[in-house]
Amino acid sequence: MSASTQSPGSWGSRTGAAVASARSAAPLPAPTVIPHARGLAWAQTSSLVADLSLVLVNGIASYSLRFLGGRSLLGGVSLAHYFCFLLLYAALVAVFCQNQGLYEMWRSAGPLDESFSILKAVFYATFLLSASIYLFGDRTIPRRVIALIGVLNAGTLPAWRLWKREVIKHRVANGQDGRNVLIVGTGEVGRALARHLEEKKYIGYVVKGFLEPNGNSGPGVIGSVEDLPRLALTHFAEEIFITAPEQELVERVVLDARQYHLEVKVVPELFDGLGWRAPIRYVGDFPVMELLREPISTFWLLIKRVLDVGGAAFGLLLLSPLLAVSALLIRLDSPGRALYPSWRMGKKGKRFRCYKLRTMVENADDLKAELRDRNERQGPFFKIANDPRITRVGRWLRKYSIDELPQLWNVLIGEMSLVGPRPHPVDDYERYQVEHLRRLDVKPGVTCLWQVYARRDPSFETNMALDLEYIETWSLWLDAKILLKTLPTVLNGSGA
After folding, report:
1. pLDDT of 391-407, one tens digit each?
2. Is the pTM of the predicted complex or chain greater than 0.70?
3. Homologous superfamily of 179-292 in CATH?
4. How far is 35 from 475, CA to CA, in rounded Å?
């Protein structure tokens, strides 16, 4: 959305430093901590929340059931007492699921083994709770109710996990999800690992190619180990698997990976030094040594998503009359549809349709190439003052950023966030340099640091510096400050 060009308070020095850093950048970027949501990292939280929710839902369903004659299964048990019982039961199920390794991200079990582990966890939790109630003499909750909840849990908990596996397989197969990885080594182990990850898509990995330590070519080889920094950025890689674990090679990969915050895993052989004390995890059926792993603030990213959904839903509901009036004015002012969908580049280079209210003539995209030589911005994005394609109503909509309000729908469905780097059109993206791809490590946003502090600065380097500062220093408090600074700017009509 529109934003101020001023830089008040302490942000001025930080912004200036970020811009200076961008202008003196090396061909490949400096390290950054990327606060993006990674699919496998969410597995633990989503599984735990889903299990607890299902236990509570099954408990509520049991509370509502009655005998054929209309008498409640629970007799006169108070709702408060029953709810405390449910919370205890849910906690026990979660503990025993954890004991069975069901919340391990690198769990290798197949669907049948996982279902059997769930059944054991539910049985242990149900048996322990029943025994505790009996030993402590609490007769208010009948054992048949506990048994009923246990049966429901034994059916629904494995069922949702089987469904989740199929969803993950489908999304990875269609390029909608998955954790991008590079494999170092093209030997038998490397090829076998690639086949394994391809066959078991529910694990959630997408192999982007092989790196050959000796510079040899072959099927799937995209470069040598020396090309790792460039290829990791180009393919949005998040992890490196080393299947040729020579000491010198591993040290070289780890140095590059540490600089660019990539995770490194070794298909292990017993070698001295670097592998000592490295935890052994499983990726499917493959044991790996985890040498580096970026900590992920899963909880805060979950809160960010919840706030995005709540804010977008509230905004769409509140602003729907304004959107309707604006759409009508657009149709009256110039021929063409009111809503303008545009292909933009999102997180990890995934295309999505970004929605705006139309502010230009219907064939504006066709005219863009003719106006490219009048571009007033430096770098791979396009902007000119007094753009002849803008309509009369469009100029007013842009002044108050009303044209960008439909992007709240993109936020609601998860393609954008309320705060994040602005999404660029595909033709601008095609002019990116390799180092520019780092701004695509997070979801694009409706507003961002650049729009708040340097919207009229023509330098793409300034844009990049502020986007990277946001990525490196992200917090919910930073999001809140950007949103608060965006609102008065919109009301002041500083958009263009």
Report:
1. 999 889 988 889 999 99
2. no
3. NAD(P)-binding Rossmann-like Domain (3.40.50.720)
4. 9
What is the residue whose two structure tokens read 């759409």? 327
The torsion defined by the Cα of 276, 277, 281 and 283, in degrees rounded to 10, comes to -30
The per-residue b/e assignment along 79-112, b for 16 or more CB within 10 angstroms, e otherwise, is: eeebeebbeebbebbbebbeebebbebbbbbeee
Domain(s) labelled CATH 3.40.50.720 in the chain stretch across 179-292
Which 3 state secondary structure label does DSSP give 408?
helix
Query: Higher pLDDT residue, 1 or 305?
Result: 305
Work out the mean pLDDT of the chain and round it to a whole number: 79
Burial 322-357 (b: 16+ CB within 10 A, else e): ebeebbebbeeebebebebeeebbbbbeeebebbbb
Are 16 and 449 within 8 A, CB to CB? no
pLDDT class of 203 with cuts at 50, 70, 90: confident
More confident residue, 42 or 381: 381
Q: Does the pLDDT of residue 388 top 50, yes or no?
A: yes
User: In the chain, what are the helix, strand and coil shares in percent, each to the nearest 5?
Assistant: 55, 15, 35
- Distances 185 to 192, 203, 244, 278 between C-alpha atoms, Å: 11, 21, 5, 20
d(CA 88, CA 59): 11
**Long-range Cβ pairs for the range 192-201 (8 Å, 24+):** 193/241, 193/243, 193/267, 193/286, 194/220, 196/284, 196/285, 196/286, 197/283, 197/284, 200/284, 201/168, 201/169, 201/172, 201/173
User: And the tokens for 350?
Assistant: 């995934």
pLDDT of residue 368: 77
What is the distance between the alpha carbons of residues 446 and 350, in angstroms, rounded to a whole number?
17
